[in-house]
Amino acid sequence: MKRRISALVILCVTLVSCAGASATISEAGDSLTTTNLVRGVAVSGPTCPVERFPPDASCADRPVSAAVMVVKGSDGVEVARTSSDADGRFEFELEPGRYLLEPQAVDGLLGTAPTQEIVVGAAESMPELTVAYDTGIR
């Protein structure tokens, strides 16, 4: 019994130490669930009507605050929902699997950002997602 508990503790410590991942044990102490922290940024562009060369820093995409991000599992059921902060950043935790990120419409921006597939592996760091909204400027 001591060996089993020690092995479980070592496994938990190993999983928690992986970048972007965390582990939780149920109250019964019999199951281990690994989740990955998925991060992203919501931006809007273009911000200037004419593209310049070299690019003008004042025409860079801008962060979108309060953009609602909905994550659905492969069965179409919502598993997570979050909103972007003032810097356009958002994050949520997901178990390994395949998901769809469905950005919701934002007032003042044209339509919605495209749906993205998210593939979450076990105990690995995830690249940051970029959700791009269209300003309608041409």
Explain what this protein looks like in three dimensions.
By secondary structure, the protein is mainly beta. The chain has a single domain (37-134), classed as Immunoglobulin-like (Sandwich), CATH 2.60.40. 12% of the residues lie in helices and 41% in strands. The protein has one helix spanning 2-17; strands spanning 21-25, 32-45, 62-63, 68-73, 78-83, 89-94, 97-103, 116-120, 129-134. Strands 1, 2, 3, 6 and 9 form a five-stranded mixed β-sheet that branches. A four-stranded antiparallel β-sheet has the order 5-4-7-8, with no helix packed on it. The radius of gyration is 19 Å and the shape is elongated.
Question: What brief labels describe this structure?
Answer:
disordered N terminus; 41% strand; Immunoglobulin-like; 12% helix; mainly beta; 138 residues; 9 strands
Radius of gyration: 19 Å
Going by CATH, the homologous superfamily would be Carboxypeptidase-like, regulatory domain
The tally of helices reads: 1
Distance between the termini: 67 Å
**Sheet with the most strands?**
5 strands, mixed
Q: Based on the structure given, which CATH architecture is correct?
A: Sandwich
For the residues shown, what is the average pLDDT?
A: 80
- The arrangement of helices and strands along the chain is HEEEEEEEEE
CATH topology: Immunoglobulin-like
In total, the number of strands is 9
- The quaternary organization reads as single chain
At the first level of CATH, the class is Mainly Beta
Tally of distinct domains: 1
The portion of residues assigned to helices is 10-25%
Low-confidence stretches: 1-30
Can you tell me the overall shape? elongated
Structural class, please?
Answer: mainly beta
What is the strand content?
Answer: 35-45%
